[in-house]
Write the structure tokens for this entry.
Amino acid sequence: MRAAVTGMGAVTAYGRGLARLWDGMAAGEQGIRTIERFSTAEFDVRIAGVVPDRNAPAWDDPGASLCIELALGAAREAYANARLADLPPARIALVVGTSLGDYERPMHEVTEQIGDALGAHGPRITVSTACTSSTNALGFALDLLEQGAADAVIAGGADVLTPLVLAGFHRLGVLSRTPCAPFSSPAGTSLGEGAGFVVVERRPRGPARYAVLGYGLSADAYHETGPDPSGVGVARAMRGALAHAGLAADAIDYVNAHGTGTVAGDPAEWRALRSVLGARADKVPVSSSKSFLGHAQGAAGVLELIATLVALDHGTIPPTRNFAGARPNSPPDPVASEVPRASTAQTVLCNSSGFGGANCAIVVGGRAALEADAPAVARRAIYVGGIGAVGPHRACLALEPGPGRAATVDPRGLDAMTRDLTTAAALALDDAGLRLRGAMQERSGLVVGTTRVSKESSDLLRQSIDERGLRQLSAPMFSRMVLNAPVGACAKALALKGPLSTVSAGDVSGLTAIALAAHLLATRGDVDRIVAGGVEEDRRAPDPRTIEGAVATLLTTEPGRGVPGARIRLAGVSLAGPAELAAACEAALASAGVAATQLDLVVGAPVAALAHVTTLRPEHRAGAAASVLGFAMAVGALRRGEARCALVSGEASASASCALVLVIEPGDTHE
């Protein structure tokens, strides 16, 4: 799947707009400056890539949403450039990547507010995979286009520098006192903030100069905050991106690296690049835009991609500033300069890595790539291999306790969300009778829906600040403030090293995760199975409709457990806008090749057009895991022979509507 880039917008450490971004780069300006918006007196690092017109103390206002303000500034510029006003709002999707968002609010609510302001009423999905969030968001935008869920997708991300963010990274010991010098000395990174959005369309309605060609996801399954030193996880994401784009490594003309400047990160990334690019690694220029924009957290990936495309527009590639000689295990050509270098580069690899071991790489190309045919994709059938659940709702699924991996999960040091998610995922693997060994681990992924960080970990972080002060906060608890922390820890515990992502879409978060995972499995050649589901810890405002716990399913390309002489296939998947539940159900049935008259069962929200079909509504209907409970109930009914064709529909939320079709088909089982 290739998608044309028809609009871009950015708010960066240089200021607002694409023109200001180019002017700053071209003039060799340093965007990393003294932080004035809040006091840094208790820290020995006082610089960051702060948005200049929001760097005054007057803007240190906890009641104002600077994250939404920056996001809207960038998204509106992209929207205007792409001339989206003539598209129906329901055909415009929005995917927002963010690491911490507004912190105090559920992240999907931030995305919904942005979507309302833009008039984007297609699916509104939040991706939160720490520093890969916006890169992952752009990848999922391709998937939404390929599924036909939208005609245009506004994708990108936003994050803001706060005292908590500065304190957390300071406590981790990874900050530099001077503007960061990736691949050089002194080691350490500089934080930043900002927002960037790109509009992608499958069939551009006007001229387009660039295309997103493919993306790849992977998990290190190694450490909560540090990268696998070998770089093998990063390399898997890069190879996945190249394969998705249908390109060989020798097609890459330039690499915009994650390039944080840290002791651990830079060498791991260079090892990955050498592994992927082979003999060409020493000849391909590799630079890091963090040297002048700072590390904009969840927005970093898309801002660095936009900086790259803006530079290509002017016949250049971005530099690595502040370079004073290479550290060991660094690229031989880091584009060491204060200003962009003249270049004829056309095909570019952009790489991102984040907390929890989440990796994402994306490939973009120029006009020639846009005009070339995309590689043909043979869609694979997807089957339900297993179901696992943790929480009071487990009894209603009539699941038998599994002896295998669930019994080996070590709960020590894990918060409630991570324990529940890891156990549910292990139970799903047990239910499928699956043991992941060797290369199977690298071809097994994890995609999870949730709406909030763990209240348990959040309380422990606040307690550490109350007792010891902001400077001495708990680094482990800070690292758990990203939404994908439980997902990364689960991947590590169960050795799931394939595609990894964390999404939020309100009460359909879990079902959305299953839908996105199913598309990855059906269209990608680097993964054979994905554990997908939802997890929720709802201690803030207990709601009797809300599930606390986790529900997971194993999706696989191999026929799995069903009923005697048959197997359960996930035959239809559809995502639609928040007011489009009926349309989502209709599209899921169409993609499955199933008529409404063939349905035996509907689980979830009632749909008027399907009033003739028996509808089950789970007692628990709120929270990220609720819609997955409905999915698991439908699987149980099919296993018991109570139905042969079921539709699972997510309760329509302000983020998205989702529908899945499950069918029993003849075939051998693996029981």
In short: The radius of gyration is 23 Å. The chain has a mean pLDDT of 89. The chain is about 30% helix and 20% strand.
